[in-house]
Design goal:
Largest sheet of chain B: 7 strands, mixed
Number of strands of chain B: 11
Structural class of chain B: mainly beta
Number of strands of chain A: 10
Strand content of chain B: over 45%
Strand content of chain A: over 45%
Radius of gyration of chain A: 13 Å
Oligomer: heterodimer
């Protein structure tokens, strides 16, 4: 079945970077884009950006434009989201998804 | 960016009774291909969002037929014909017609 499996929880200090991975299975990775969404504790869903599965084309939310890098590795069917210059308000659950489904299980990033 | 507005923000329903929630978009979600790119998700406590309805009114695989989506253009409704205990959680609408994809604030459903 179509599935996205994300890397494990991370604890980072302010100013550091974090890189979350999302491994896809059950479909042709290069045929679909990958979207990243985050959810702060007790809050709603916030779109961070999208990357094409084959062309490398990307679109980032303006809010993260200067701090986020999204990449893919088609040889391993894996997407990556790196967020730099972390702040305490970046503490959140980070999700990958192939719109509209499925979603990954989420990766908790704690900045403290 | 397209703004998605959900109402109400919370809903308390007796098991077996119907429930209805609304989502409005600031722009039409009707694409030139004839599809309306509006999705409904349920996020149960501690879980990733799961797709209920795609393209306005199509139930995703495995979703009970007590869930239905309707509407057109900019006004959308999710209805649950008979609420069950497992329906507790937060319901989000999301537009997929343009990037950035945007979400409503969510409607929290609780059982009386």
């Amino acid at each position: 079945q179509v599935q996205l499996v994300q890397s494990g929880a991370e604890v980072k200090k302010p100013g550091a970077s974090v890189k979350v991975s999302c491994k896809a299975s059950g479909y042709t990775f290069s045929s679909y884009g990958m979207t990243w969404v985050r959810q702060a504790p007790g809050q709603g869903l916030e779109w961070m950006g999208w990357i094409s599965g084959h062309s490398g084309k990307k679109k980032y939310a303006q809010k993260f434009q200067d701090r986020v890098i999204m990449t893919t590795d088609t040889s391993t069917s894996t997407g990556y989201m790196e967020l730099r210059s972390l702040r305490s308000d970046d503490t959140a659950m980070y999700y990958c998804l192939r719109v509209p489904s499925p979603w990954g299980q989420g990766t908790l990033v704690t900045v403290s | 960016d397209i703004v998605m507005t959900q109402t109400p923000l919370s809903l308390s329903v007796t098991p077996g009774q119907p429930a209805s929630m609304s989502c409005k978009s600031s722009q039409s979600l009707l694409h030139s291909d004839g599809r309306t790119y509006l999705y409904w998700y349920l996020q149960r406590p501690g879980q990733s969002p799961q797709l209920l309805i795609y393209e306005l009114s199509s139930r995703f695989s495995g979703v009970p037929d007590r869930f239905s989506g309707s509407g057109s253009g900019t006004d959308f409704t999710l209805k649950i014909s008979r609420v069950e205990a497992e329906d507790v959680g937060v319901y989000y609408c999301m537009q997929g017609i343009d990037l950035p994809n945007t979400f409503g604030q969510g409607t929290k459903l609780e059982i009386k």
